[in-house]
Amino acid sequence: MRDLSGVFKAYDIRGIVGEQLDADVVRDIGAAFARQVLGERGAIVIGHDMRASSPELASAFADGALREGADVVMIGLASTDMLYYASGSLDLPGAMFTASHNPAKYNGIKLCRAGAAPVGQDTGLTDIQREVEAGTEPTPGARPGTLSTRDLLHDYVAYLRGLVDLSGSRPLRVVVDAGNGMGGHTVPAVFDGLPIDVVPMYFELDGTFPNHEANPLDPKNIVDLRAKVLEVGADAGLAFDGDADRCFVVDERGEPVPPSAITALVATRELAKDPGGTIIHNLITSKAVPEIVAEHGGKPVRTRVGHSFIKAEMATTGAIFGGEHSAHYYFRDFWKADTGMLAAMHVLAALGEQDGPLSTLTSAYSRYAASGEINSTVGDQAGRMAAVKDAFAARDGVRADELDGLTVELPGGGWFNLRPSNTEPLLRLNVEAADDSAVAALRDEVLAIVRA
């Protein structure tokens, strides 16, 4: 019996190609997914990124699905949000082959149901794992499905442009670092013919990532972008991760704009279109986000970290937009799925509608200092969490909750969240306070307990 516990994650499937994932395993995953969704839809749409292994694995998945009687629509090279567009617009379940920002030796599968509805551990992924591990035989008498191909890039572009109109923007020069990922495929099409002068960096599709990791969350991977923005006098810089579903922004000074500020900025734009709407934010985004949402007449709703929780809350509340500290941005008008491209278009539209620099525009949405995420390797996660909780519980005016890890709010406005990693022996700390010195003091106090 296979053991696939190392590759089936909370939200997707991911592992080292040739060791944990190969064509045989993926073929069986495709068959299991087809059996799961055939009662809902008769076809599956499949896309893949630029990794060397992606075409073969996508083809193997298709073979497994076809064997079970599902029709398959192959859309070829795609960003993850382009696959979500395909799933939403065609109303079909989907499979995207990518390992996002992971190194070249990895690959993976992001699955969704029709309308880009997420598939996670509690919504089908565990059942697929169980079937594949058990080696379930093909369905007897199943008539093979049919295979077709479609090019949806231009339809995807037209849909995004219908949501954010950049045609009337003042001319902008924007440096874009695609990190040799799928942004190199989608960005030229999205901005073609618009008053946006794109200065490209690393647009060549190359799954070996020869220039830097396609993970803009790590500061070292946006060093080149920041320098290029200053060199060419750009109005802004954008950095996409490997599958281009996340987008990071730097301003005209080459300074990173916090994803929380982008969340607040986009939220105000969505609320202008839909007054009184609900905005989702995870519990690690800045407290400026719910403040600004409320000030603009919206209803902020706080949720756990992770796209399945965001999407579930959006479905429950009818939210118009959601944002995470990790630069995932979710839109009701994009089937509640995340798309970094649409968020980037909102930022450029806001910038192009006025004459000031991006730093001035976004400063209105950045009210507090933050530590960023700090990881600590610990052997006893539960014990260290309990020690931190006990240390702060006795203080006057302290409020704590355990919606996701431990969140502690202190008198005076400072707060922190401490939560365990699902996959590693780590505790992740995020701190926010009025200024850098207050952040440093609170950070050091918590870390002293965590690392004792």
User: Which structural class should the secondary elements be placed in?
Assistant: alpha/beta
Alpha carbon gyration radius: 22 Å
Percentage beta strand: 15-25%
And the CATH topology of the largest domain? Alpha-D-Glucose-1,6-Bisphosphate, Chain A, domain 3
Continuous helix count: 14
> Mean of the pLDDT scores?
96
> Which class of the largest domain in CATH terms?
Alpha Beta
Distance between the termini: 42 Å
Largest sheet: 7 strands, mixed
Number of strands: 23
* Low-pLDDT stretches: none
Shape, principal axes of CA atoms: globular
Corresponding CATH superfamily of the largest domain: Alpha-D-Glucose-1,6-Bisphosphate, subunit A, domain 3
Domain Alpha-D-phosphohexomutase alpha/beta/alpha: 7-137, 155-254, 261-368
Domain Alpha-D-phosphohexomutase C-terminal: 373-447
Family: Belongs to the phosphohexose mutase family.
GO molecular function: intramolecular phosphotransferase activity; metal ion binding
Structural features, described:
The chain has 4 domains: about 15-150, Alpha-D-Glucose-1,6-Bisphosphate, Chain A, domain 3; about 155-255, Alpha-D-Glucose-1,6-Bisphosphate, subunit A, domain 3 (Alpha-D-Glucose-1,6-Bisphosphate, Chain A, domain 3, 3-Layer(aba) Sandwich), CATH 3.40.120; about 260-365, Alpha-D-Glucose-1,6-Bisphosphate, subunit A, domain 3 (Alpha-D-Glucose-1,6-Bisphosphate, Chain A, domain 3, 3-Layer(aba) Sandwich), CATH 3.40.120; about 370-450, Alpha-D-phosphohexomutase, C-terminal domain (TATA-Binding Protein), CATH 3.30.310. The model has no long low-confidence stretch (mean pLDDT about 95). A hairpin with an 8-residue loop joins strand 4 and strand 5. The protein contains 14 helices and 23 strands. Helix content is about 35%, strand content about 25%. The chain is of the alpha/beta class and about 450 residues long. Strands 1, 2, 3, 4, 5, 6 and 7 form a 7-stranded mixed beta sheet that branches. Strands 18, 19, 20, 21, 22 and 23 form a 6-stranded antiparallel beta sheet that branches. The longest helix is centred in the first third of the chain and has 15 residues, at about 25-35. Helix 1 packs across helix 2, helix 1 packs across helix 4 and helix 8 crosses helix 11 (about 340-350). Keywords: Isomerase, Magnesium, Metal-binding, Phosphoprotein. Pfam families: PGM_PMM_I, PGM_PMM_II, PGM_PMM_III, PGM_PMM_IV. Belongs to the phosphohexose mutase family.
